[in-house]
Amino acid sequence: MVEGFIGFFELNYKFSITANYSVKYVNSITVKILVLNGPNLNLVGIREPDIYGSISMEDHFESLQKRFSSIELSYFQSNHEGFIIDKLHEVGFSIDGIVLNAGGLTHTSVALRDAIAGITSPVFEVHISNLAEREDFRQHSYITEVSVGAVNGRGLEGYAIAIQELMAAHN
After folding, report:
1. Which of 10-19, 103-112, 162-171 has the highest mean pLDDT?
2. How confident is residue 170, by pLDDT bands cut at 50, 70 and 90?
3. ∠120-159-85 over CA atoms, to 5°?
């Protein structure tokens, strides 16, 4: 098997030779998307269920993997800004898309904004709650202007919406 890379897609070429010696190419595209969560999102399902729901992020991620079984989904969560930036640097030049819920860092981190601006993988911003209905300090996002899109206030379904949008951008 010969492997190649074009744009955001990893292409695997499989060759088969028919009886008359013609060569057929069969392409299989593997779309890779990272779901990246910031501080306190490890508490989804426990923390403030009236805002964030009662389903854990781990359970929700499993349902996303089943729902989007045709793509490769991975998950990373950290309560530490530097680890999130390190992850963006690690995958931000090789992955097809990043679904990012930066939590409270959305409203405070210029460093996170700069990390997103510095990578080539598209980032889609997600927030479980509707930020427009939250506290004043949550009204500004440093990452919206460097993201390809944003969804908020759709609960955990926002993650699926972001994945669909990133997938559509590749079709």
Report:
1. 103-112
2. confident
3. 40
Long-range pairs for 55-59 at CB < 8 Å and ≥24 separation? 55/156
* Catalytic center residues: 52, 127
Q: Among candidates 67, 142, 60, 65, which has minimal Cα distance to 106?
A: 142
- CA angle centred on 57, ends 45 and 157, rounded to 5°: 95
Rounded CA-CA distance 34/77 in Å is: 10
Whether pLDDT at 165 is above 50: yes
Mean pLDDT of all residues in 11-28: 41
**3 state DSSP class of 59:** helix
Domains of the chain: 1-30 (no CATH), 31-170 (3.40.50.9100)
CA angle 111, 89, 110 (to 5 degrees): 10
- What is the rounded distance in angstroms from the CA atom of residue 102 to the CA atom of residue 83? 12
